[in-house]
Amino acid sequence: MKIDNFFSELKRRNVYKVAVAYAVVGWLIVQVATQVFPFFEIPNWAIRLVVLLIVIGFPIALVIAWAFESSPKGIDRTMVADALHRQSRGRVWIYVVVIGAVLSIALFFLGRYSARNSVTPQQDASWARSHPPTDKSIAVLPFDNLSRDPDNAFFAEGVQDEILTDLAKIADLKVISRTSVMQYKNAAARNLREIAQQLGVAHLLEGSVQRAGGKVRVNAQLIDARNDAHLWAQTYDRDLADVFAIQSEIAQTIAEQLRAQLSPTERAAISQPPTTDVVANDLYIRAQALDYQVNDPGAKEGLLEGVRLLQEAVRRDPNFLLAYCLLCEINLDIYWGGFDHTDGRREQANRALQRAEQIRPDAGEVHLQKGAYAYHGFRDYERARTEFEVARRLLPNSGQLYTYLAAVDRRQARWDDAIRNFSRACELDPRNVFIFEESSFTHFGLKHFAESKSLMERALALDPTNVFIRAWISQVVYAERADTAPWRSQLNAILSEGKERASHAAFMFVMCALAERNRNTAAQALDLMPAEGAVDFFDSFWPRDWYVGLVARSFGDENAAQKAFASARIVAAKNVKEQPDYAANWEVLGAIDAGLRRKAEAIKEGKRACELLPISKDGWDGPSMVTNLALIYTWLGEKDLALEQLDISAKAPAGITYGDLKLSPVWDPLRNDPRFEKILNSKR
């Protein structure tokens, strides 16, 4: 067959029409899959399967178009090439192509430019329906402060907190953690049935506290939220010194009302008051509130104030076990968070822990802090896990405990265990934004993008004004598909609300601008950057001048870059000197020295960060150290070594994302190398 005749035959047999129609409809199906599947939490492999089937089906469709044609009798084999060519009976195929093209374009721009970050009440209720309550489930709501002195609010919180703590030690009950219930302080605005649904419990305990002189009145009532039935109520009028006995009595009564089975150990734990000093207890509650700020980059002063309050509490009551445990925890938070990563700070945590062990070595809270000390103090995961497992038997309703377990699982690359333990933590503390964030980060590191986005949207529903969460959700598409449009759209929306709010996401403004190669938005991002700098996605702190240098280098202003990097190095070198065993400090110094072309020093510092935190020791933060070493090698012209490290990062969970590889200018020196393209394609 001549080539001209072949093409004529393709046209006569409608092969061209089928190819165009198939391509348009196939593209429409892909758009529907990518936009709709994540909404129903269908995993990403299903989308890839749809794309693969469409690709495989294309040649099959062409073969069928060649071999068969439509006739009034239906589908018949095509007549031989020299048969009489019948007139086309319509233009239906044109309509199919046009309609399919319009729908495809509409879906493409809908997904590209819409910021779908709002979470409806129906979605919030959906979470609750997926976690139906059991009969032996309860949430202890904040007690009203009926005292004239507003300072007694902490006293009322202490009463509620101790009742909750006692009930949480009973394995036969499901008890919601403190973080989640403290959001319902306004008693007048409570809808009990709705609260119970949100928390996934059948029962609620609420009450009030009135303190006057040396007397106290505590009122408590147990409600079955499923039918609004009041199951029990009691008013206690006692001397102030008896308030701790009241708390134990209420906890035991509630356990009896819910028909919970108490072991002798649990009964003994409930009957033992945390302290006999009312003022010390107030100080403890105040410090506890400050510890919840631990994930705020500016939390250092609050944490140090918490230490001061607890030191005063244990001075008043040297046998206050919970105060010593919290003192250990806050000192570890200061150490682990990099606010004061020194041996002296870790030793302060150790001294508090040793005193707690002397008071009651078999307490669940003691084992919890022993695990935290092994984990945050030494990254001794096995010792931490041993202590956490003991604590789990004694504190069966501790959302904090399951969060710790999940975090250790993540460090050890036990990903399924991490997901399961984060899920349990979310169930026990269903209004805790931090836990949903960490669970989302875990799925993100595993490239479970739909699951990650869903969990972070849940966090946004709990904290709808959180700028970081909004910005983070919008960058998921960038990480997965190297598409910056949704990210930019949300960042612009945040910026329209004011520079102060936008500054909380300054790091992401810089990264998005660099991915877009937009000098103007990069300058705008630097204007938002706090004077001290900002943390990255892995909580490593980078001085402001590092970002200034990075932007200048990315747009070819080498003189400005050198000046900024030199300024940033002063801060980074000081941090390394003060905290020489903190891997993140070496990571930052190494990258800065690479920018300054201090080759030998930069490589040594980047390697030191990887030695302190190798992937084998930390499956979560370790890959970021490897990625940073790849950056150092790239900037210093060591292409082979850079690609070697980049390949390691790309293969690791929590390693570099497709979006960063595809669009970040730091990798531009590697882009023409086939090995880089291979790494990039492996992340698709």
Q: What's the quaternary structure here?
A: single chain
Question: How is the main sheet built?
Answer: 6 strands, mixed
Shape: globular
Mean pLDDT over the full residue set: 87
Over all CA atoms, what is the radius of gyration? 30 Å
The assigned structural class equals: alpha/beta
Helix content percent band: 55-70%
Number of strands: 10
Poorly predicted spans: 80-90, 110-120
Whole-Å distance between the termini?
A: 42 Å
Q: What percent strand?
A: 5-15%
- Helix segment tally: 34
Question: What's the helix and strand layout?
Answer:
Elements: H1 3-12, H2 15-36, H3 44-67, E1 68-71, E2 74-77, H4 92-113, H5 121-129, E3 137-140, E4 144-145, H6 153-168, E5 174-175, H7 178-181, H8 192-199, E6 203-212, E7 215-224, E8 229-239, H9 243-257, H10 264-271, H11 278-291, H12 300-316, H13 321-336, H14 343-359, H15 364-378, H16 381-394, H17 399-411, H18 415-428, H19 433-445, H20 449-462, H21 467-474, H22 476-481, H23 485-495, H24 499-502, H25 506-516, H26 519-528, E9 534-535, E10 541-542, H27 544-554, H28 558-578, H29 583-595, H30 599-612, H31 622-635, H32 639-651, H33 658-663, H34 674-682
Parallel strand pairs: 3-5, 3-6, 4-6
Antiparallel strand pairs: 1-2, 6-7, 7-8, 9-10
Helix pairs in contact: 2-3, 2-4, 6-9, 6-11, 11-12, 11-13, 12-13, 13-14, 13-15, 14-15, 15-16, 16-17, 17-18, 18-19, 19-20, 20-21, 21-23, 25-26, 26-27, 27-28, 28-29, 29-30, 29-31, 30-31, 31-32, 32-34
